[in-house]
TrEMBL record:
Compartments (UniProt record): Cytoplasm
The name this protein goes by in its record: Triosephosphate isomerase
Keyword Cell inner membrane: no
Source lineage: Bacteria, Pseudomonadati, Bacteroidota, Cytophagia, Cytophagales
GO cellular-component term (any): cytosol
UniProt pathway: Carbohydrate degradation; glycolysis; D-glyceraldehyde 3-phosphate from glycerone phosphate: step 1/1; Carbohydrate biosynthesis; gluconeogenesis
SUPFAM superfamilies: Triosephosphate isomerase (TIM) (SSF51351)
Xref: Pfam families: TIM
Enzyme category, top tier: isomerase
Keyword set, alphabetical order: Cytoplasm, Gluconeogenesis, Glycolysis, Isomerase
Subunit composition and interactions: Homodimer.
Length: 253
């Protein structure tokens, strides 16, 4: 049985007080309302991680993620944060290759392969983002494009390493636009990605990999998206900034 997961990517939102308040609300609501075996991840900005890690110390089902990390081990990289530093403050997951990082910070598939390696080397779990632009969607080669992102950033991993990776499919045209992928579009891509992984690593491993959907996911559309056979949860942006909406999404399974 593969793991179900709902992760909240706060992006560059909330000051520390607001972040701590949101975390406390999520802790209490998850405890009171969420049944079943869905895992919860929150990904606050870097400067919140140490304090939020303390709040989550006794929360077995809520994990902490960073939104990015350096591809370098340490050294003269002003402004960067290393995987080792993240591990030292209690982070569990690292989001790698979000489309906003690919677009605004020119992150390449090769660089994301290095980030994946360094994250795994520090005992952290990558949430690897992939997805196509509207232009590629309209051209029709979107499956090939996203499979290539996996190939170039993940397929150097051993089987044991790939098993630790969570994949998040986020069509760029659906992020922050209010325009969600239809269940058919989400299922088509998730199924294609699982098949592609099966081709390289075998069906057994492919069936075990958690693949999340992201892009304008909210309480009203999460139930139908999460009901798709190959969708194992969500990577939530805007709606994860409201504890009520985020927990309602978690309860959509
Ligand atoms: O980018 C996303 C999560 O990483 C999705 O963002 P929205 O849910 O705001 O569309």
């Amino acid at each position: 049985m593969r793991k179900k997961l709902v992760a909240g990517n706060w992006k560059m939102n909330n000051d520390l007080d607001a972040g701590l308040k949101l975390t406390s609300e999520i802790i209490h609501m998850v405890e009171d309302e969420v049944r079943g075996n869905v895992g919860v991840v929150i990904a606050p900005p870097f400067v919140h991680l140490t304090k939020i890690s303390q709040l989550l110390k006794n929360e077995a089902r809520i994990s902490l993620a960073a939104q990015n990390c350096s591809e370098h081990e340490k050294g003269a990289y002003t402004g960067e944060v290393s995987a080792g530093m993240l591990a030292s403050v209690g982070v569990n997951f690292v989001i790698i290759g979000h489309s906003e990082r690919r677009e605004y910070f020119n992150e390449t598939n090769e660089q994301l392969a290095r980030k994946t390696d360094i994250v795994l080397n520090h005992g952290l779990l990558p949430i690897f983002c992939c997805g196509e632009s509207l232009e590629i969607r309209e051209k029709g080669n979107y499956v090939e494009h996203v499979c290539n992102q996996l190939n170039e950033s993940l397929f150097h991993l051993s089987e044991e390493e790939l098993r630790k990776v969570v994949i998040a499919y986020e069509p760029i045209w659906a992020i922050g636009t209010g325009k969600t992928a239809s269940t058919e579009q989400a299922q088509e891509m998730h199924h294609a990605l699982r098949n592609y992984i099966a081709g390289a690593y075998g069906k057994e491993l492919a069936d075990d990999i958690t693949i999340l959907y992201g892009g304008s996911c909210k309480p009203s559309n999460a139930p139908e998206l999460f009901a798709c056979a190959d969708v194992d949860g969500g990577l939530i942006g805007g709606a994860s900034l409201s504890s009520r909406d985020f927990v309602d999404i978690i309860k959509s399974f």
